[in-house]
């Protein structure tokens, strides 16, 4: 979905579409298509500001227990897209402006021509929005490294021998209990 700056009215233009399937790069699935929308506002002959949002629910696979779980996307974004000035000698962008913009949550992207690919932009946003660490819940106990039992659902008999953090914490508790017992005896 290529938007040419020269075709934009002064008040900008809004776009809304659906994304039916994730890219190969995106480690997620869609139960239903995602809703993508954005408004492209000209801010000069060679620059636009894009206010967009990607909404919907994606299906992720938990890093620890390998089960699928839904993840709700909340992804409003603001991007300034400007044409790279090929004739300019100095750096194409004032980095001090960049830092300020980053603080302001405004990302700047450079373009080779006065047009922007909204579909590609939205796919990038999806990748940025997906959590780096995918967990079905923050305290997911994961799989038993020995027998593969999903420890949130079932307790296996080999858990005492494993080095899983959850069991280390349990062992520490048991250890403290033993300490207390000793103290009681003294
Ligand atoms: Zn999990
Ligand atoms: Zn086990």
Main features:
186 residues, alpha+beta, 2 domains, two-stranded antiparallel sheet, 23% helix, 34% strand, elongated, binds zinc ion
In short:
The protein is an alpha+beta fold and about 190 residues long. It has helices at about 95-105, 120-130, 165-185; strands at about 1-5, 15-20, 30, 35-45, 45-60, 70-85, 105-110, 115.
Helical fraction: 10-25%
* Average pLDDT figure: 81
Instruction: List the uncertain runs.
Output: 94-103
Biggest beta-sheet profile: 6 strands, mixed
Instruction: Tell me the span between the first and last alpha carbons.
Output: 77 Å
Number of β-strand runs: 8
Estimated share of beta-strand residues: 25-35%
Order of helices and strands: EEEEEEHEEHH
The rounded Rg comes to: 25 Å
Distinct helical segment count: 3
Q: Which cofactors or ions or other ligands sit in this model?
A: zinc ion
Broad shape: elongated
Structural class of the helices, strands and pairings?
A: alpha+beta
| Integer tally of domains | 2
Explain how this protein is built.
With 186 residues, the protein is α+β, with helices and mostly antiparallel strands. It folds into 2 domains: 2-129, no CATH class; 141-186, no CATH class. It is 23% helix and 34% strand. It is built from 3 helices and 8 strands. Strands 2, 3, 4, 5, 6 and 7 form a 6-stranded mixed beta sheet that branches. A two-stranded antiparallel ribbon has the order 1-8. The longest helix is centred in the C-terminal third of the chain and has 21 residues, at 165-185. The radius of gyration is 25 Å and the shape is elongated. The model is unreliable at 94-103 (pLDDT under 50). One zinc ion (ZN) binds next to loops.
């Amino acid at each position: 979905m290529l938007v040419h700056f020269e075709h934009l009215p002064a008040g900008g233009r809004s776009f809304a579409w659906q994304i039916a399937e994730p890219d190969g790069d995106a480690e997620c699935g869609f139960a239903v298509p995602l809703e993508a929308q954005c408004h492209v506002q000209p801010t000069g002959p060679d620059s636009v500001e894009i206010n967009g949002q990607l909404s919907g629910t994606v299906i992720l696979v938990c890093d620890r227990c390998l089960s699928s779980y839904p993840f709700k996307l909340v992804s409003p974004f603001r991007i300034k897209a400007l044409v790279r000035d090929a004739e300019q000698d100095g750096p194409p962008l004032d980095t001090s402006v960049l830092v300020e913009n980053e603080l302001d949550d405004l990302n700047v992207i450079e373009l080779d021509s006065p047009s922007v690919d909204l579909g590609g932009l939205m796919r990038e946003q999806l990748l940025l929005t997906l959590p780096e660490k995918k967990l079905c819940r923050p305290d997911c106990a994961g799989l038993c490294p020995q027998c593969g039992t999903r420890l949130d659902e079932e307790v296996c008999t080999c858990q005492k021998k494993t080095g899983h953090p959850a069991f280390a914490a349990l062992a520490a508790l048991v250890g403290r209990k033993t300490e207390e017992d000793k103290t009681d005896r003294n």
